[in-house]
Write a structure and sequence with these properties.
With 469 residues, this protein is of the alpha+beta class. It has 20 helices and eleven strands. It folds into three domains: 15-97 and 258-353 and 377-392, no CATH class; 101-246, no CATH class; 399-466, Homeodomain-like (Arc Repressor Mutant, subunit A, Orthogonal Bundle). Strands 6-5-8-9 form a four-stranded mixed beta sheet, with helices on one face.
């Protein structure tokens, strides 16, 4: 039997301005500039403010609609963003990103005397390398992909030949298929010596024993003295297990700079926050569209009314966009100021031990914004301070209590744990239980599982794997 009834539900619908603001808050400064350029291209009503580049006696090409009489049926808007200064925008230090890994390899590939077919195969291999510079896929799968995706017919022998070419590139070790091959590619380029010869043999014939720190077994099988073993190990540990990491791809192949959204200066004992708007243009309404709108407002002609309706629609869009930029600025500034106030002692000198436990909720409560908004602000944003450039994510960490009942950040605990490991006797490295004792002696109340968790996060191997001869 069917039943009918009424149900009242309350739903919240975001306005165009709110949607626009949310999207803009997430963008770092470079992407914001690109987004503004896109809006200028797509919305004919908007123009970049270039009036300041002209002589004062000349009439500006762009105007504010507030210069015209408003009409009730077709409202006009002043579209200059009030949060922008008329002063010249200061430029400031940028954090340079190194040449991209792929770009470097392709440049080296260009210097090789290869046929067009060989070059295509090698270029496909370069694009198949992971961030560490390894080729993690089998040669037969590469052959299949070249055939189906790139319409290039080849075989495993040719692919292997092109891989050998790439393995000769800088940085040494690139194009390896596993860690053993990566280390061998590097050690074989070292100047010949007994230690290098022993290192090659260890990697070729005793790799699993070496990674398992079974040094005594290797010494017995190879007939090495303890001094010989130490010399060979010294050569191996200097090799780079992640050759792709030498060239930073952390941002993108195209982005060559990270421009901080915030600048923090320490002057006369005071912390001063600013947001230099590097190359972010001021937006105004294009004069011809303003004239069209004002002319249509006083006309009864249908075509002019339709044109005015189109312009009004674009004006609404422009108003929301400019207001969203303004709200983005205010939201970012309020959030960063709250972070600085919360971590004031740290920002005075950059001493990591002064970094207090802080989570997104803490800043949300101080600003009155949602946690999701704080998360969007923090994402992909940087601040330049008097002690370095940092991602905003760096300042957030959870905390634990020390023996005095005071809350300390996990960052401080990890630093103390790292110091314990760094100062240990490498012939008898500390177990996790012994590290708990050492941390307790330093005043930190941590469980064994917490020590193991932080040790893993710091990339510190277990005690057995840290043992040295």
């Amino acid at each position: 039997m069917l039943k009918q009834g009424l149900e009242l539900k309350q739903t919240q619908k975001l306005s165009p301005l709110q949607i626009q603001t949310i999207k803009l808050i997430e963008l770092p400064i470079q992407e914001l500039e690109q987004r503004i350029r896109k809006e200028l291209e797509e919305n004919p009503v908007l123009d970049e403010d270039v009036a300041k580049e002209k002589d004062e006696d000349e009439a500006p090409r762009e105007v504010s609609l507030s210069e015209y009489k408003e009409d009730d049926s077709i409202p006009s808007y002043r579209l200059r963003a009030d949060n922008y200064s008329k002063d010249e925008r200061p430029q400031y230090n940028t954090f340079s990103v190194k040449e991209s890994f792929t770009q470097s390899l392709m440049e080296q590939l260009g210097y090789r005397n290869l046929t067009e077919h060989q070059y295509s195969v090698a270029a496909f291999l370069v694009g198949s390398l992971d961030d560490d510079g390894y080729l993690r896929r089998s040669l037969d799968s590469i052959v299949d992909d070249l055939s189906f995706r790139a319409n290039i017919e080849t075989d495993e022998e040719e692919v292997l030949g092109m891989l050998k070419v790439i393995q000769e590139f800088e940085p040494l070790g690139v194009g390896a298929r596993d860690l053993r091959e990566c280390l061998l590619l590097q050690i074989r380029h070292c100047k010949k010596s007994p230690a290098v010869d022993n290192a090659v043999k260890i990697l070729e014939n005793h790799f699993n024993d070496f990674t398992g720190k079974h040094f005594q077994k290797i010494m017995t099988r190879m007939g090495l003295t303890e001094e010989d073993m130490r010399a060979a190990i010294a050569k191996i540990v200097k090799l780079n297990p992640s050759p792709g990491g030498q060239i930073d791809d952390s941002y993108s192949d195209q982005a060559q700079q990270i421009i901080p959204d915030f600048l923090l200066e320490y002057k006369e004992g005071k912390l001063q926050l600013s947001m230099p708007r590097f190359s972010v243009p001021e937006l105004r309404v294009n004069r011809k569209y303003a004239d069209l709108l004002m002319d249509a407002a006083n006309s009864s002609e249908r075509e002019k009314k339709e044109a005015a309706a189109f312009v009004k629609k674009k004006l609404d869009s422009a108003k929301w966009f400019v207001e969203a930029i303004k709200q983005r600025h205010n939201t970012l500034q309020s959030t960063m100021q709250a972070i600085i106030d919360y971590q004031r002692e740290y920002f005075l000198d950059g001493d990591e031990t002064n970094l207090k436990p802080m989570v997104l909720k803490d800043i949300a409560e101080k600003t009155g914004f949602d946690i999701s908004t704080i998360s969007r602000v923090v994402n992909s944003k940087y601040i330049e301070t008097h002690f370095g450039i940092y991602s905003l994510k760096y300042f957030f960490s959870e905390g634990l209590e020390n023996q005095d009942g005071e809350e300390v950040s996990t960052r401080e605990l990890k630093k103390a744990l790292q110091e314990c490991v760094d100062s240990e006797d490498k012939h008898k490295p500390l177990t996790d239980d012994e590290l708990v004792v050492k941390m307790t002696e330093r005043g930190y109340k941590v469980a064994r599982r917490t020590v193991a968790k932080y040790r893993d996060q710091l990339g510190i191997p277990k005690a057995r794997l840290r043992r040295e001869l």
